[in-house]
Amino acid sequence: MASNKVLMIASSALGFGPQMAMQVAERLYTQGFISYPRTESTAYPSSFDFRGTLGAQVNNPVWGSYVQRLLTDGYQKPRSGTDAGDHPPVTPLRSATEDMLGNDAWRLYGYVCKHFIGTVSPDCKYVRTKAEFSIGGELFHCVGQRVLVKGFTSIMPWLAVNEKNLPQFTKGEKIEVVRVDLHEGMTSPPKYLSESELISLMEKNGIGTDASISVHINNICERNYVQVQAGRKLVPTALGITLIRGYQCIDPDLCLPDIRSFIEQQITLVAKGQADHLRVVQHVLQQFQQKYSYFVKQIENMDALFEAQFSPLADSGRVLSKCGKCLRYMKHISTQPSRLYCNTCEEVYYLPQKGTIKLYKELTCPLDNFELLICSMPGPDGKSFSLCPYCYNSPPFEGIDTLFGAAKCGSSGKLGKGAGMPCFLCPHPTCRHSLISQGVCACPECSGTLVLDPVSAPKWRLCCNMCNFLVLLPQGAHQISTTPERCPECDSTIIEVDFNKKTTPLEDGATLYTGCILCDELLHSLVEMKYGKSFFRGSRGRGRGSRRGRGRGRGTGKMVDPKMSFRDF
Fold first, then answer.
1. Is the distance from CB of 80 to CB of 43 less than 8 angstroms?
2. Catalytic-residue membership of 329
3. Residue 461 clears pLDDT 50, i.e. is over it
4. Are the C-beta atoms of residues 546 and 515 closer than 8 Å to each other?
């Protein structure tokens, strides 16, 4: 039996923590009752004295009579196991009683003895019977088990086969159905890991050794990353969860077993003379130095998680919108820096640091299912724009070089908190909130694009997604929206205006009008510029437009407009 097996059984069956189990095992070893407890071997060496080890237990008052029968009838040498080349498996060396050892040490010693005796005992033999039958065309079966020879389960009863005797059936026999039950159930989430399961996973992934596994588990308990609850289950604390979320946010590799496993493998190669000690040390130090430098540069992400989880600000936030990952509501923490915090996912999403944040009609982003928000900048001429919290913090498209709020960067060149990608910078080809759908034409003041303000009604307007340039659209309209059509003259987006019936400028009381705000004479005359150049020219030709819907307007006109839209004015 290897050390990890001792720790697993001590936790699952005896109720000892790994650290305590190893301390008890070491005390038994120093007192001469068991062999060295730190070993990874499960196979006995060819020179092992089985008869002598069994003979030392003949006079034990608990299992001595069983051992005597084994010696008389003949014992069996174990058929499998792994020799790690360090120490033999943990075995008893001399007999003891509970009075000699005390309760805890006696229970661990008893398991070591019974396990060793079981490994040299005969096999357990049983008969397994399966009966199949048909009811109404549906096949059913039942299984029975009957023990023939108890073998090693006589000394290790916790591994005994559960007997279930079936009646004697004959092929083709008809049986009476007494009762039919239909059971309904629901899948349940996995339970918390137990110490025993964690040890098994650490062993499987190469984390720790027989000497260090118990120390690692004890450390995470003492540091309050986990708490041991009923059944020796390891329940993560808020501190532990937040710490792991922070590592995942900055460098996910630090949370995975790969790095630790790699180092353990390299150490093993060094011990076997298959790797150079100096080169391994230099490589590992270089790797961790690079990771440390990167981690320090991104430490603000960890600070944000801890602040949101443990500061009073997390309690003062108000529920605002749903997270696209867990579909639970996130809290809006309005104090600077403004952000959303998902308590379920333990993640923080920064928002624009100026303006009012509201939910946008419970609409969702087609990319990640996060509910959209509306940010309204202060002042009577402040622009409004929609944003997805996830896309704003993690732009999903390559080549997004300009971010909203990026002008607040420090001298280091690092983006400040709150810089991100709103919908009016998003190049998604089909989303109705993106730049592709809501963009109308180029801005005459900068390299930006004029986009339709989604919540500006009844004072409809276009806002530049880069600067503060505004275009006031016809006031009092019921609805103004973009269309998929493009102007053949200037390639701007055609907009649709639904005028108020009482104030419509269209003939015959028509209310619906579509056209280009640059090339259509009527629409061009109804717009007004703010904070920028006027695009009105002295010489204009006819505008272009079309009227449809409730009542028919009349008249079209074109103006000679350059292909560069606003940029030539």
1. yes
2. no
3. yes
4. yes
